[in-house]
Amino acid sequence: MAFYHSKPLRFECTQCSQCCYGGKHAYVRVSKQEIENIFQFLKIGKEQFEHDYLVKLVDHGFGIKMKQSPLAKAMGKQGHCLLLNKDGHCSVYPVRPTQCRTYPFWPEILISEEKWNNEVTRCEGINQGDVVDVDFIDQQKKLSVEADIVIDE
Ligand code: SF4
Questions:
Q1: Which of 14, 21, 84, 86 is the most exposed place for a label (fewest CB within 10 A)?
Q2: Sorting pLDDT into bands at 50, 70 and 90, what band is 153?
């Protein structure tokens, strides 16, 4: 049984955008459906979106490119998602990919209480706010796993 079934987890997103930052070679995984949702939301052509924003991943599928910028530097990071706007907020929030929607309820973070608590160095919303429903956590974790697998469909 997962540890959070016996230990209630609290989480409240503060919209700090720290989860949009990462290393130079990090990426945000996107499915074909998510790609379509995003370029339509941005009202730009598919080819332009693919050229400007996407990177083909070595294993399978596509990711949103990361960008090195003064903003990332100021945050002490190597890069951030290319879809962050000048104010440091997600420019496609209503259609953001599953990888973003399900954070921080990813299997690798939920694997132990220690991992969950350590993630607070990245996500200030962890252990803040109300207790999150266990069924919701399980559902988010499942969606995150599925998004990693069913990426080319
Ligand atoms: S790092 Fe955590 S608190 Fe900050 S935007 Fe991401 S999920 Fe929300």
A1: 86
A2: very low
Q: Is 129 helix (H, G, I), strand (E, B) or coil?
A: strand
pTM of this prediction exceeds 0.85:
yes
Closest among 101, 135, 93, 152 to 4, alpha carbons compared: 135
Average pLDDT over residues 103-115: 96
Quick one: which atom of ligand 1 is closest to the CA of 18?
1
**Could you tell me what percentage of the chain is helix, strand and coil, using 3-state DSSP and rounding each to the nearest 5?**
45, 15, 40
Identity of the amino acid at 119: E
Instruction: Tell which one of 10, 16, 102, 128 to mutate to probe ligand 1, the residue whose CB is within 8 A of the most ligand atoms.
Output: 16
Q: Nearest residue CA, atom 1 of ligand 1?
A: 123
